[in-house]
Design brief:
The protein is an alpha+beta fold and about 180 residues long. The chain is about 55% helix and about 10% strand.
Length: about 180
């Protein structure tokens, strides 16, 4: 609100400095009542408040949409974060960097193929590499913990490639405060 009033005053000042001096004519003074001024100020404040509320709502919706995509997927027997998930990593890293109190747990997962020990190790490597990517994106190392569930928490239990692809992932889970 103050910026709006200040901008209007500066524009009027600049316009007054750049104009020709007025000719001496009998002019009636313009009168603006205090009620008219406060109505204009109130309308300007209401418009600014409405814009701020709309901006806050849009930011909250964008943040919620970003947080809904919280899994990073991997090809068979691979633990490197893929280019397809870079946007997800960048979004979460930026969120964590701008919210230093936020904490996440990255849960590494694998499909059912391979031994339990191998899948636990693969899940841990996937979680660690996802953490590394988040830290490179601006998140703090202290905000992130990693764990591996191996093949113990499948998203899909069928025995085909489509299901196995869903199970090869690292989930980014935010902690409740």
């Amino acid at each position: 609100m103050k910026k709006l009033i200040l901008s209007v005053l500066l524009l009027n000042l600049l316009a007054a400095c750049g104009s020709n001096p007025p000719k001496e004519e009998a002019m009636e003074p313009a009168t603006t009542s205090a009620a008219e001024m406060s109505n204009a100020e109130a309308e300007a404040q209401a418009a600014a408040d409405a814009q701020a509320a709309a901006d806050a709502q849009a930011a909250a919706e964008a943040e919620a949409a970003m947080l809904e995509k919280n899994s990073v997927y991997f090809p068979f027997d691979v633990d490197a974060v893929q280019d397809a998930d870079r946007e997800t990593i960048v979004n979460h890293a930026e969120y964590l960097a701008s919210h230093p109190d936020a904490k996440v747990r990255i849960e590494g997962n694998a499909d059912e193929r391979g031994s339990s020990e191998y899948n636990l190790g693969l899940g841990q490597r996937r979680a660690n590499n996802t953490k590394r990517a988040l830290v490179l994106g601006g998140a703090s190392d202290a905000q992130i913990e990693t764990i591996s569930y191996g093949e113990e928490k499948p998203r899909c239990s069928e025995h085909n490639e489509a299901c196995w692809a869903q199970n090869r992932r690292a989930d980014i889970t935010y902690s409740a405060k």
